[in-house]
C-alpha cells in the first residue's frame, strides 16, 4: 500500500534529552497531530484477540489516522480484506517468527514470503537471539540479509528484544540490522517486559540516521510516547495507539504540557 510522504511536523530534537523519570513538558503545541499519527503503529498481537475485536481495532486505528497496524499471521487475510473493503489508508505489518525468533532461516523466509503473498505491507521479524548470544554472527547476518531479500522494497523491521540483552549485545544487534540492509530496528515484542528509553538512545548512537527505530513494549500514554521520541525513536508500536492519539486530542487545546519540545525526525527527514 502506498502511504505517500510523511507529514512535515517533525519528531525528534535530540539536542535536549531529559531523564526518563522527569515529567515531559512541551509536547502538545509543537507537534502536528498528523505527524504523531504517522509515527504510531497499532498492535493487535494478543493471541486471544477475536475477529470482532480485530475489526473494531482496525476501524479505530484507521479513523484516527494511524500509519500501520501489526497483526498475527492468522489474522492477516481478514485484516487485509477489512482494510481494502473499507478503503482505509492503513498499512498492515506481518510478524515473522513472532514472538520467539527461534525458527530456522528457511522457515523464516517461507513465512515472510507467505505474509507478503497474503497482503502484508511491512514485516516485523524477530532476530535469532540464540545466534546473537552464541557469537554466530556470520549466520545471523546471512539470515537477516535473506529476510531483506524476501521483503524487497517493503519495510523490514528487525525486533532485537532489548529486555533480554546486555548493552553490548544490543549494540551488536543494531549493527547487524544496519549491515544487513534492514529498514528499522524494533526494540521489543513486548512479551519480555517494557522497553527503556536508554535502549533507544543506545541504538540511535549505533545506527545514527541510517535506520528508523521503533520503540515497542509498555508504551501506553502520551507521556510515554514523548519520552521515547525524545530518546531517538521515530516510530512507536503500541496496542494503545488510538488511545494515545485520543489523549493528544483531549489535551491539545489546553496545551497542558507547555510548548518547549520540538519533534524532528532523525532519519531521512525528507521522507
Describe this protein's structure:
- This protein has 271 residues and is an alpha/beta fold.
- An eight-stranded parallel beta barrel has the order 1-2-3-4-5-6-7-8, surrounded by eight helices.
- The model is unreliable at 1-25 and 256-271 (pLDDT under 50).
- It has one domain (37-252): TIM Barrel (Alpha-Beta Barrel).
- Strand 6 (184-186), helix 8 (197-207) and strand 7 form a beta-alpha-beta unit.
- It contains ten helices and eight strands.
- It has helices at 33-39, 51-64, 76-86, 105-117, 129-133, 137-151, 167-180, 197-207, 222-231, 241-252, and strands at residues 40-44, 68-71, 91-96, 122-126, 155-159, 184-186, 212-216, 235-237.
- Helix 2 (51-64) packs across helix 3 and helix 7 (167-180) crosses helix 8 (197-207).
- The chain is globular.
What is the strand and helix layout of this fold?
Layout lengths: L32 H7 E5 L6 H14 L3 E4 L4 H11 L4 E6 L8 H13 L4 E5 L2 H5 L3 H15 L3 E5 L7 H14 L3 E3 L10 H11 L4 E5 L5 H10 L3 E3 L3 H12 L19
Parallel strand pairs: 1-2, 1-8, 2-3, 3-4, 4-5, 5-6, 6-7, 7-8
Compact summary:
This protein is of the alpha/beta class and 271 residues long. It has ten helices and eight strands.
Pattern of helices and strands: HEHEHEHEHHEHEHEHEH
Alpha-carbon distance between the termini? 16 Å
Shape annotation: globular
CATH topology: TIM Barrel
CATH architecture: Alpha-Beta Barrel
Strand order of the largest sheet: 1-2-3-4-5-6-7-8
| Helicity, as a percent range | 40-55%
| Major sheet summary line | 8 strands, parallel, barrel
Q: Assess the beta-strand content as a share of residues.
A: 5-15%
Enumerate how many helices there are, as a single number.
10
Rg (C-alpha, Å): 18 Å
Structural class: alpha/beta
Q: By CATH's scheme, which homologous superfamily applies?
A: Aldolase class I
- How many domain units? 1
Can you tell me the CATH class?
A: Alpha Beta
Average residue-wise pLDDT: 87
Give the number of DSSP strands. 8
Q: What are the low-pLDDT stretches, counting only 5+ consecutive residues below 50?
A: 1-25, 256-271
